[in-house]
Each structure stands twice: as structure tokens, then as C-alpha cells.
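hey so i finally got around to running the thing on that chain from the lab meeting. sorry it took forever, my laptop kept dying and i had to restart like 3 times. anyway pasting the input first so we r on the same page abt which one it is
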Amino acid sequence: MTGKVSITASGERELVITRLFEAPPHLVFEAHTVPALMKRWFTGPEGWTLATCEIDLRPGGTYRHEWAHEDGRKMGMSGTFQEIDPPHRLVATELFDEDWTGGGTVNTQTFEPVGDGRTRLTTTVLCTSAEARDSMLQSNMEAGIAASYARLDAVLADVPIGKVA
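ok and heres what got predicted. didnt touch it at all, straight out
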């Protein structure tokens, strides 16, 4: 499954997003928590850049991401970290400025070693309702996630083990 994003519905209100990476958990975790690394890969579909990436990585700390498209469109989201267990687990709220998720989500990310220096990243997205979850499933989110994770593969291959940004 390396390279392929899997998105499935679970329970009444959850999405489960899974992807394997050819890098150890500490590097995949750092790539999700170090702004300089995130700006290199967390851009979504072609034409977008992550213009703002602010992270206060502590329980109760906040984050802010703002994307800019080459045609002038902008999109932003913020959240609060609820749990941080490097390099195993992150739990945070997420709310887009133009909320299309029905009130935001709570995202739990687990970084699981699977042998040979690889990591299984599982993101469980808890939505406010089944309708919000189903709307997310019908969106183009899979294409954006797949494009970003393809860029993350290149970033991970370029980051020396034990080094950040």
C-alpha cells in the first residue's frame, strides 16, 4: 500500500485515512509537526502553496495553516492540539475558515512502525455528523491528500535520518 491512500467510512461519523511511507515514524511525525517541512509538501492539489504554517506543538497549543492558489484563491484552517506523543500519536481539532465540515473535526493520527524502516500513518477524522462525514467522502479530498503525500515521499527521501528541516 506504499504510495496509495485509502479512505474509508467507519462507524457513524468517522473517516479513516491510511497510507504507508518509506521512512521511520520519527521522520513522518516531524514532517507533520515542523513548519519548514510541512511547507514543502502539505500543499494539496497542483497550483497551491502553504503560505502560512504556524505550530505551537504542545497540548492546548494551536496551529494555523493558510494556502494560496496561483489564481489568487485562499483557504485557511486552525485547530488546537489535544494530545501529543512523539513520534506515535497526534490528536487535534480542525476547523476551516469557510467551514465545509459542519462544525470542524477531531483528527487522530497514529504513526506505526511496520518494519524495514516504514511507517503506517492512520488518520481518523471524527466529524460532527454522518452527513458531514459523507460530504467529505464525496469531496475531492482524496486527490489533494494523494498529491500532498506524493510530495511528502520526496521530502522524506531527502531528509537525513535524525535531522529536522
